[in-house]
Amino acid sequence: MAVDSWWPADDAFEIMVGAVLTQNTSWTNVEKAIQQLKQHELLSAEAMLASDVALLAEVIRPSGYYNVKTKRLLALCDWYLQQGGEVVLATWPMAKLRAGLLEVNGVGPETADDIVLYAFHHPVFVIDAYTRRIFSRLGLLNEKAPYAELQSQFEQAIPADVKTYAHYHALIIEFGKETCKTKPRCQACCLRDRCELAQVS
DNA sequence: ACCCAGGGTCATA
DNA sequence: TATGACCATGGG
Fold it and tell me: How far apart are CA A77 and CA A152, in angstroms?
């Protein structure tokens, strides 16, 4: 599965926006917000910073936490332009990019890694709630372990390759979304049959 | 009418 | 350092 086939976006900036909007939120809600950003021609750092804050909040409303996320998007836009935008950021090494993103208010480890992997194509493994739930139910990791610790486990188990990391993450999300909706705890037994993911252990 | 969902920050002890 | 409150929507 190609990276872009499950995180569709026209450019790196759109992925950055999506990474913030999807915080603790289903992707279907994020799609609505992004669609509305496009309709209002607000899907650029310059346009967001120049827009009326109340309007921006209203436009991204479907993604939830819209007041918080409005501030976070503006902080990210600010940083993005200050550094010189996509052209400059694309030249940064992975560690510098990740550290820089983490400095932005509202960008935590998962949001930063979404951006590092999907927008700038550096090999970093994204740890999300699905990863924690599914693999802890399989008894393969401690759900409460710190982000960096879990990330290290996956990065040691999987070859450090952008497409591979994106592929595994996509598989995890697919299970998180599609299996056993009425019985969430059944995810583990469904997962056992999927060789690709079972091999992660 | 409930329950859940792909985070992160801040205040408190 | 660790735990809890808070942010808010949409779908099952």
Answer: 29
